[in-house]
Task: inverse folding
C-alpha cells in the first residue's frame, strides 16, 4: 500500500460517502417532511449539509477501515491460526446483531425497527461479503462480514445513543455501510492482489 493507492482509496471513499449521504438524505426528505438540518428545511441548504456530512462519514469510515486492518494484522499474529480469529469475528457479528436489537428495543423502538434494522444490515453485509468471497476466496467471507456489520455498528454508535431517532440512525448508517462496502470490495483491486482473503495482506504491504 503506497501513498498513491491510499490517496485514491481515501478520496473515493469520501466521494462514496458524499453520494450516499445526498441520495439517502434526499429520499428521507421526500418521505419525511420533518427531516432537516438545524431545524431548517430549505432544500439547497440541506443538500449542502448532506454533502459535507457525507464527506465526514467517508473520512470516518476510512479511519475505521484502517483501524480494522491493523486489528486484523495484530489478531492474526496473536492467534497464529486464522480459523480462530475468524471464529471470534463470527461470534462478534452474532453478538453485535443481538446487541443492536436489544439496544433499539430498550429505547422503545417501533416493533418493526428493532429487529428489521439488524436483520437488514446483516443481509446486506452477507450479500456484499459473498461478492467479496467470489472475487477473492472463501476465507474472505467472515472478515468482510465482520467489517460490514460489526464495524459499521460501532461507527454508527453516536446515532444509536441517546434519544431514539430513526432518521438519524438511517442517515448515518447507510453512508457508513456504503463506504465500508466500497473499501472492502476495492481493497484487493487497489493492492493488485486477487488472492487477498482478508485485511492482513494489506497491512503487511503497508508496513
Result:
Amino acid at each position: 500500500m503506497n501513498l498513491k493507492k491510499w490517496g485514491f482509496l481515501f478520496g473515493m471513499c469520501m466521494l462514496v460517502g458524499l453520494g450516499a449521504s445526498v441520495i439517502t438524505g434526499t429520499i428521507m426528505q421526500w418521505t419525511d417532511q420533518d427531516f432537516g438540518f438545524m431545524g431548517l428545511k430549505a432544500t439547497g441548504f440541506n443538500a449542502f449539509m448532506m454533502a459535507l456530512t457525507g464527506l465526514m462519514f467517508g473520512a470516518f469510515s476510512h479511519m475505521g477501515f484502517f483501524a480494522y486492518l491493523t486489528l486484523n494484522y495484530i489478531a492474526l499474529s496473536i492467534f497464529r491460526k486464522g480459523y480462530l480469529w475468524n471464529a471470534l469475528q463470527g461470534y462478534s457479528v452474532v453478538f453485535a446483531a443481538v446487541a443492536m436489537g436489544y439496544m433499539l428495543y430498550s429505547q422503545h423502538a417501533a416493533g418493526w425497527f428493532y429487529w428489521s434494522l439488524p436483520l437488514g444490515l446483516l443481509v446486506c453485509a452477507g450479500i456484499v461479503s459473498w461478492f467479496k468471497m467470489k472475487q477473492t476466496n472463501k476465507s474472505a467471507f467472515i472478515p468482510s462480514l465482520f467489517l460490514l456489520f460489526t464495524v459499521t455498528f460501532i461507527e454508527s454508535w453516536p446515532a444509536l445513543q441517546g434519544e431514539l431517532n430513526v432518521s438519524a440512525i438511517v442517515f448515518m448508517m447507510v453512508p457508513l455501510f456504503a463506504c465500508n462496502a466500497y473499501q472492502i470490495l476495492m481493497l484487493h483491486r487497489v493492492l493488485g492482489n486477487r488472492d487477498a482473503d482478508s485485511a492482513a495482506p494489506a497491512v503487511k504491504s503497508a508496513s
